[in-house]
Amino acid sequence: MRAFILVFMADNDMWQSTKGNVIRVGSNRGGNGDASAYGSGVANRGAEVGATLFDRVPPHDVDAEMAVLGGMLMSKDAIGEVSQLLETSDFYLPQHQTIYDAILTLFAGSQPVDVVLVANELMKDGNLDKVGGADYLHSLVASVPTAANAMYYADIVHQNAVLRNVITAGTKIAQMGYSASGAQAEDIVNLAQSEVYEMSAGKVRQDYVAIGPVLQNTLDQLDKMQNHELEQGVPTGFRDIDEVTQGLQPGQMIVVAGRPAMGKSTLGIDFARSAALHHNMTSIVFSLEMSKVELAQRIIAAETNIPLAAMRRAEDITPDRWNTLNTFWTKMQNAPLFIDDSPNMSLMEIRAKCRRLKQTNDLKLVVIDYLQLMSSGKRVESRQQEVSEFSRALKLLAKELEVPVVALSQLNRGPEMRNDKKPQLSDLRESGSIEQDADVVFLVHRPDFYNKEDRPGEADIIMAKHRNGPTDTFNLAFLGATSKFMDMPQDYQQ
């Protein structure tokens, strides 16, 4: 594929900039030319796209940029407001980026900001002449009558920057589409979605950073934690688990694993219930095993203490229970809990839906029930390789969206071969990469499942892996009739 490159020249070769207007001068580079030079078919279309796309000046407003900088040079209040909205890269002209950085440097150092001091700051770095000298700084102040409208001008600059980002993302996506093969179509769609999400979320790809600022941020977090100013992660709803984990942390992949009928789905739903219904945190449950109705019945049973069996027998719903259900409905009808039971759901669908929910509802928790039922929609060498890809992709999704992703997983028959029946990390089914990618692994074990007289109604939630802290085993009560786990009493002794 022929690449089309837009080159911005500093002198009269191609572009000449005047206040607010950009005039094309010089040769007609990148014009229509002779399309036959590119061959036929796709190449011709690529040439047409390049001619129309790259032969135009990206959206910008030099007048607005000058007015923003002028307002900041006139008022310290304007600096504080504008700095919350604009990044350095939002300015189109490089000299404006340099001036903006100099203003912020002075402001961050609690120093006065005016034309003279900014000129001095630019001179220290050898940038004063590059931006047009002190005369240009004076012209910035003269270009705006008052600093009161600085935020209005800043919004214009920001909107133009967003449009330039759209063009950049669109161009990148188009190039990926032309260069990829048919077999890579799904991967390209995912990359395109990721590109658009990052752009719309205002994220900028980070470069490497020095250790100093990172350590400073870490110490600041510790200070806030001691002063109870730092928000914890997503609460699980269980006292001891939250004590050890400080809640499910953003960017983490949490695996809840167990043998069939052990209660892993119940625990995953408990996490979602706690977050959405009791802490008003937007959560979504992707259920590849149960229908929406079955999930709703479990949630109702857990919240109202009406037995799950009664949900399936009309005669068991007494008037008192109807009152309880109506009260629950009134309370929870606007709860930020979403359920998706789409059949044959692919990983790409899950990613797309999570990104959309993050943008529209500030998503805080994702629960997937369960990992081995997911489909990639493409041919793979082995099921183990496919599950490994799912595991890695979910970890990356957690980091991208900055939310905890809880993935439920089956265990192999390993526990049933042991005398105590207790699961181990090595029992994770079909892929060792699950335990590698996971930040936290919970293994669900109910002794009374194998022997009804062995601690009936109790469950061990074994934290077999905890990347950021100690492992532990948590003793919970299992209420199968209402489909939920609960904390044991504080004074309970095994």
Task: Give a quick set of tags describing it.
about 500 residues, alpha/beta, DNAb Helicase, Chain A, Rossmann fold, 2 domains, two-stranded antiparallel sheet, 16 helices, about 45% helix, disordered N terminus
Fold blueprint:
Blueprint: E1 15-18, E2 21-24, H1 42-54, H2 62-74, H3 76-85, H4 94-108, H5 115-124, H6 133-142, H7 150-179, H8 185-200, H9 211-226, H10 239-245, E3 253-258, H11 264-279, E4 283-287, H12 292-304, H13 319-332, E5 337-340, H14 347-361, E6 365-369, H15 383-401, E7 405-410, H16 433-437, E8 440-445, E9 458-466, E10 472-479, E11 484-487
Parallel strand pairs: 3-7, 3-8, 4-5, 4-6, 6-7
Antiparallel strand pairs: 1-2, 8-9, 9-10, 10-11
